[in-house]
Amino acid sequence: MEPVPYDKRNGKIWFNGQVIDWKDAKLHVLTHGLHYGSCVFEGERVYNGEIFKLREHTDRLIYSARRMGFEIPYTVDQIDEACNEIIKIQNVQNGYVRPVAWRGSEMMAISAQKNKIHFAIATWEWGSYFDPKIKEHGIKLNVSKWRRPAPNTIPWDTKAAGLYMICTLSKHEAEKDGFNDSLMLDHEDFVAEATGANIFFLNEETKEIHTPIPDCFLDGITRRTIIDIAKEKGFKIIERKIKLEELKNFEACFLTGTAAEVTPVSQIGDYSFKVTNSIGSFFDKYLEIVNRKVIA
Predict the structure, then answer these.
(1) Is position 285 annotated as part of the catalytic site?
(2) What is the pTM of this model?
């Protein structure tokens, strides 16, 4: 059965301060956010009817907008309240929330000083980002030809729409060649992240976990959660620059992210990894936290 396209779904969307029918959540074809990428968003998980770390996501959304040169016309409390309102209206128990803010169509050129800032929140039931059967044995990544941009070329520490163009290109390239996702290197050819998730490498014997320094990509909210979990379990976290050829020195690898949660990796290009018990224990603890509705 083919999935229902997102513009054909039923229900409600929070749109510029009002709850409207899903089908009526529209924007003009000459919207600045569409043509020039002046759009920021968040991705949030709902567990048992509660949004995990909602305030952290909202804070990051507002920060992203300010880095892009505009103010979302709602406070942190108002955005949190709207997110909670729409998941209750939609009766989402275990799913995804997408707040998004963008410049409108009042001006149509690179300059957009007078454009209205629009804001919407959509939510829907959503399961695993990767097929659970594939996750059980570890997903496979290629190495993308695209690089994360240098930090002085773009506001890299935001969830801005334009930053994800190279992620889509990388993901499509990977899927075309039979992989599940893509490893992206940074502008200096060090390991950076996957297309929408942070990456970790571990060795069980030494209880060390190595992960790239987030200096040109997001320091993910799930990333920080898993680091705390790993430390509690006695692992030493080493954040550093990692060369691609160093991957042969690691026993295991996994991804973290709002969508990916905790996903083991079995292959990156020519490098192979085991799906170890520790990765499973990190995910179990993560699920224990979110199922306890720890949302602060």
Answers:
(1) no
(2) 0.94
